[in-house]
Amino acid sequence: MAENTLIEWADATWNPWQGCTVVGPGCANCYAARIDKRFGGNHWGPRADRKLSSEANWRKPFHWNAQAAKRGKSMTVFCASMADIFDDHPSIKPEWRDRVFETIQATQNLTWLLLTKRPDLIWERFRFEPLTNVMFGVSIEDQKRARERLFFLSEWKAWGHKTFISYEPALGAVKWKNFTNPMYGFSHSWRYPFDWAIAGGESGPGARKPDINWFRDLRDLCVAESIPFFFKQWGIFDAAGLRVGKKKSGRLLDGVLWDQRPS
Question: What is the predicted pLDDT for the residue at 1?
Fold first, then answer.
């Protein structure tokens, strides 16, 4: 690969711009905000302008696309690890986001993972133009965020999109079944509106301890429904709830490495 990433469930990450704003408890210990601060950035928060990346960075997806075509195998790209593509901050120009989707449409040998905490800002735009090389995902950390975000996946699936969830950092138990919200007029209902599930605990300063049963519930659901399940990490706490550090806690759930991805 021309680019690597420390995010285990993608082959590469690509950031068209940098910066975001806290929208829920899952953001409290955001690693991207820490990185931004460490390197002197000032791109986080409602009053901070987002930073557009360089032209050299914008050329990378086309290079990866050519590599993938040569190998005859798709490459998975997470967009974006240092931002939220559907952030509605006024400093993000409409042409920035338009260019992102032009880039996605022009790189059909890449599988793009678009993960957001703002699904309400995306669903109308893509109602009638499915992107065949995209998986749309929502971050969910607890039951409240599941109620607010998960039902959007039902409509995306109905429009022909592949969908996924990122239950990371897991901060509370979630009932995953039958999420609807009549105020949006959604007409479709799925038992489980996601085609892939990623789960994990929290690492870094201030990490909060997960409960093993939260992960077991999602794993068991995925096994029963034949949904690929990816367990990313325990974080700084192990399965017994002991603070041991990310390296020691590992990625095994009940002794098994859950490394499944959609075909």
Answer: 36
Report which of 112, 102, 81 is spatially closest to residue 17, judged by C-alpha positions.
81
Cα–Cα–Cα angle for 202, 204, 205, rounded to 5 degrees: 115
- Token readout for 232 is 């990313």
pLDDT for the residue numbered 2 = 40
The strand pairing partners of 113, in sequence order, are 78, 135
Cis before 2? omega within 30: no
List Cβ neighbours of 231 (8 Å cut-off, separation of 6 or more): 199, 200, 215, 219, 251, 252, 253, 257, 258, 259
What's the chain's length in residues? Answer: 263
Are 47 and 19 a contacting pair, CB within 8 Å?
Answer: no
- In 3D space, the residue among 78, 89, 77 whose CA is nearest the CA of residue 21 turns out to be 89
Query: Taking a C-beta distance cutoff of 8 angstroms, is the pair 29, 37 a contact?
Result: no
The CA distance from 125 to 103, in Å, is 17
pLDDT in tens, 150-178: 888 887 887 788 999 999 999 999 988 75
User: Rounded distance, CA 172 to CA 29, Å?
Assistant: 16
Amino acid 137 reads G
**226: alpha, beta or left, given left = phi > 0 and alpha = psi -120 to 50?**
left
Distance CA 45, CA 173 (A): 28
Low-confidence ranges of the chain (pLDDT < 70): 1-5, 122-130, 178-190
Measured distance CA(32)–CA(81) in Å, rounded:
7
